[in-house]
Automatic annotation (TrEMBL):
InterPro entries: SAM-dependent_MTases_sf. This is Class I SAM-dependent methyltransferase. Keywords: Methyltransferase, Transferase. It comes from the Bacteria. The keyword Transport does not apply.
Length: 249
C-alpha cells in the first residue's frame, strides 16, 4: 500500500508557493501546544506526530521537554524540518502505510490530513496508529467535517501569497476537494482530496480498528462573509473536529 499519488505533488507545491510564517505563528503554535496537552489531560513524555510537515508543532512541544518523533512523506518538508529542528527531535522520512517503528509512544497524532485514501486505507492507518501507541496512551486525530465542506466551503475561492485555491465537494466520495494553482501559472493545478466523516462514521471505523473515542473537540471555521477565521465553531459548522482515542479494553 502506498499513499495516494496526489500527496507529494500537492504538498511540495504548497510548500513552494507559501511564504514561511512560522515566526509569525509562534503565539498560535503555543496555543496549539496548550490545547494538545489539555486534550491529552495527563502528563506525557513521548509523542509521534505523523504527516508532520516541516515540524512546527513538534518543535513547539520539544521545547516543552516532550520527546518528539515525526514522520513525513514529502522529502522537501523533511529537509526543511531537519534544517529548522534541534537534534532532540527524531525526524523520519517515509509513508505511514508502510513505515515501521521499533518502539511505542505515549501519544500518536495526525493533525490536518486524515482521509487521504480509501476507507480501507484509513482503517489500516488507524490499526497501525494503535500499534504505535502505548497501551495506556492516547491518539489525537483531526477529522474533516462533511457538513462544512458540503454546505459552507464548496465553491469558495481565495488567494494566499503566490497561490490561489478553490474548494469543492465530491458528494459520491464524501470528500473535500482543495485545488491550488500559482497566480502566474493557472494551468498548473494541484489538488488534495480528503475523505470527510460524520462522528458516527468515524466512531464505527475506530471501533473496527480496536479503538474507542474518548473525546471530541470541534475546531474552527472560516467565515466566508467577513473572510475571518473563527478559532472555535460548533460541531456541525467546524471545518474539522479532533478526536481523542484509547485502545479498546
Amino acid at each position: 500500500m502506498t499513499t495516494n499519488q496526489w500527496v507529494i505533488p500537492f504538498y511540495k507545491k504548497q510548500f513552494e508557493w507559501l511564504r514561511d510564517i512560522e515566526d509569525e505563528m509562534a503565539v498560535y503554535l503555543q496555543k496549539d501546544a496548550d490545547t494538545i496537552e489539555e486534550q491529552i489531560g495527563v502528563k506525557f513524555e513521548t509523542m509521534l506526530d505523523i504527516g508532520a510537515g516541516v515540524g512546527s508543532i513538534a518543535r513547539t512541544l520539544d521545547a516543552r521537554g516532550i520527546s518528539m518523533t515525526t514522520l513525513e512523506l514529502v522529502p522537501e518538508l523533511v529537509e526543511a524540518a531537519r534544517l529548522r529542528s534541534s537534534k532532540t527531535i527524531d525526524i523520519h522520512l517515509g509513508d505511514f502505510y508502510t513505515y515501521e517503528f521499533s518502539k511505542q509512544f505515549d501519544v500518536v497524532s495526525y493533525f490536518d490530513g486524515f482521509g487521504v485514501g480509501t476507507d480501507d486505507d484509513q482503517l489500516k492507518l488507524l490499526e497501525r496508529m494503535k500499534n504505535w501507541v502505548n497501551d495506556d496512551g492516547s491518539l489525537l486525530i483531526d477529522i474533516y467535517n462533511p457538513n462544512y465542506w458540503r454546505n459552507i466551503a464548496a465553491g469558495k475561492e481565495m488567494k494566499i501569497d503566490d497561490a490561489e485555491r478553490i474548494y469543492s465537494f465530491d458528494e459520491a466520495g464524501c470528500r473535500m476537494v482543495d485545488s491550488w494553482w500559482h497566480s502566474e501559472n493557472p494551468d498548473e493545478i494541484v489538488t488534495q482530496s480528503l475523505r470527510c466523516y460524520t462522528v458516527d462514521e468515524i466512531s464505527t471505523m475506530c471501533k473496527n480498528a480496536g479503538l474507542t473515542i474518548t473525546g471530541i473537540f470541534p475546531g474552527g471555521a472560516m467565515d466566508f462573509v467577513t473572510w475571518a477565521y473563527m478559532e472555535t465553531a460548533t460541531l456541525s459548522t467546524c471545518l474539522s473536529y479532533r478526536i481523542k482515542l484509547k485502545k479498546t479494553t
